[in-house]
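Customer escalation, tier 2.

The customer says the design service returned an amino acid string that "doesn't look like it belongs to this structure." They asked us to rerun it and document both sides in this ticket. The original structure tokens are below, unchanged.
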């Protein structure tokens, strides 16, 4: 148990050497007029377990699309993606969901909190799905770490955007993921709170060997990552 995070420490031997692998990934969408728009074009990426990687690039370059593909929330038009050693293209939607459970945390830019659940219940949910018997205490601990110990029983509509973002981050932490994907994790936070959340992200990376893959415009956050990759014209450049 790590004294800073209150979460179980996982050593490097507990994780696969390769956390995320992508090769020749193409993502096309129909523009509505019969034409196909290529967002990603032959993209390749390899991230080892325990690495921290920032993905930067211009707005509209496809960063959020890439994150969704790497996490198995969407499928590429062509190419291969492996998550924790498993090929996502060989799994159906239910299989990808099972693979993510307990292995993957995701911080969405739009929060994606369940409106009918309190902050505590939103954070408990992924821990319960991952089979943790202590989902309640675990959720309380992480919410306290993000400064929301007094907001446990509040619903999303009763919280500010910054508070909802912190609930979303706590939810991603609660199931102790092997891999954490975060889409602009500090985008809705003030400077002080954002700095605190950045520290939490890297505590998770340091103490548990959690792989971090972040999309960000925050240069301070990007600089703290082990690698910074730029998405440009559908491909990643180191």
């Amino acid at each position: 148990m790590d004294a800073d995070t209150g979460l179980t420490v996982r050593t490097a031997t507990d994780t696969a050497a390769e956390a995320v692998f992508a090769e020749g990934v193409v993502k096309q969408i129909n523009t509505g007029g019969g034409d196909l728009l290529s967002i990603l074009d032959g993209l390749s990426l390899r991230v080892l377990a325990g690495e921290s990687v920032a993905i930067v690039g211009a707005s509209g370059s496809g960063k959020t699309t890439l994150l969704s593909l790497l996490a198995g929330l969407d499928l590429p038009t062509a190419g291969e993606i492996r998550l924790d050693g498993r090929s996502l293209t060989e799994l159906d939607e239910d299989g990808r969901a099972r693979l993510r459970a307990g292995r993957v945390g995701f911080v969405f830019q739009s929060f994606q909190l369940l409106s009918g659940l309190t902050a505590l219940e939103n954070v408990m949910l992924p821990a319960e799905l991952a089979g943790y018997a202590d989902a309640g205490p675990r959720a309380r601990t992480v919410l306290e770490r993000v400064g929301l110990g007094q907001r446990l029983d509040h619903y999303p509509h009763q919280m500010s955007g910054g508070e909802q973002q912190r609930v979303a981050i706590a939810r991603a932490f609660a199931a102790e993921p092997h891999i954490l994907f975060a889409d602009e994790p500090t985008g809705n936070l003030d400077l002080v709170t954002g700095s605190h959340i950045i520290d939490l992200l890297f505590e998770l990376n340091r103490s548990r060997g959690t792989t971090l893959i972040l999309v960000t415009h925050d240069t301070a956050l990007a600089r703290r990552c082990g690698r910074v990759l730029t998405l440009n014209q559908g491909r990643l450049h180191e």
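Tier 2 assessment: The sequence is consistent with the input. The CA atoms of residues 55 and 104 lie 18 Å apart. Residues 191-208 form the longest helix (18 residues). Sent an explanation to the customer and offered a walkthrough call.
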